[in-house]
Amino acid sequence: MASEATTTIDPDEASHFGALAADWWDPKGSSAMLHKLNPVRLRYIRHAVDAHWGGDPKALRPLAGKRAIDVGCGAGLLCEPLARLGAQVTGIDAAPENIDAARDHAQGQGLDIDYRATGIESLGMAGAFNLVTSMEVIEHVTDPALFLRGLTDALAPGGLMILSTPNRTPLSRLTMITLAEGSGMIPKGTHDWKQFLTPEELEALLTDAGMKVIDRHGIAFDPRKGLVLSDNEAINYIVTAVRA
Fold first, then answer.
1. Among 35, 50, 73, 88, which residue's Cβ finds the most Cβ atoms within 10 Å?
2. Domain map (residue ranges) of the chain
3. Residue-by-residue pLDDT tens, the chain, 244 positions
4. Could you tell me the strand order of the sheet in which 129-135 lies?
């Protein structure tokens, strides 16, 4: 009888993103779209954190005293602002090249972040984190259900999980693959549209993992403002979940 998989890392995906490591922090480079997404994610995370823990929206360090992990952290685009918000941050990624780039950049910024080249299933820190984030990652893993169980296992009692991912719609195929990858805005081969999850599919997987979605927003393009939180989930969406 075949044994259950112990990792959700796809080696080909890790290699693809590892090859982009040196360029990750260039806002005009291959990760330019992530630089545009990051402020939207951060506004959403900040609102979710304040709502969940009853924080002061004006506080500079709302995550002080809390532990956070970003799973699939790349070179640390989200880890660094989470650290500046006061969290003790761990970042993990399947590509060692990304972790090396993340460590170098954090050191240059004077930030103490625990970076590790590993998958969530191998981390061995059950219940350690008040905040678990994973942005644009679940569509790249081999087993989304196992991946979400790993995220859930890492979450401390009373903790918060925030995930973002592309929706599987004709519009997401057109904008993210045909147009963005076709024009070079996103590196070719970054996405497999068949791996995208609809919000309903993700919510069902989170429910099976013992989580409950308490908020969901789309991330859409506004011609006047760029990427914004929206009721339109046709291209991309972000969710907040807690233990059921």
1. 73
2. 11-243
3. 333 558 899 898 889 999 888 889 999 888 888 899 999 999 999 999 999 999 999 999 999 999 999 999 999 999 999 999 999 999 999 999 999 999 999 999 999 999 999 999 999 999 999 999 999 999 999 999 999 999 999 999 999 999 999 999 999 999 998 988 888 888 888 889 999 999 999 999 999 999 999 999 999 989 899 899 999 999 999 999 999 9
4. 114-117, 88-93, 67-71, 129-135, 155-166, 236-243, 211-222, 226-230
Place of tokens 């914004």: 228
User: Beta strands 155-166 and 236-243: pairing type?
Assistant: antiparallel
Tell me the two tokens of residue 182: 């076709």
92, two tokens: 């993990």
How far is it, in rounded angstroms, from Cα 80 to Cα 93?
Answer: 15
Q: 3-state class of 67 per DSSP?
A: strand
- Provide CATH code, domain 11-243: 3.40.50.150
Residue written as token pair 């291209």 = 235
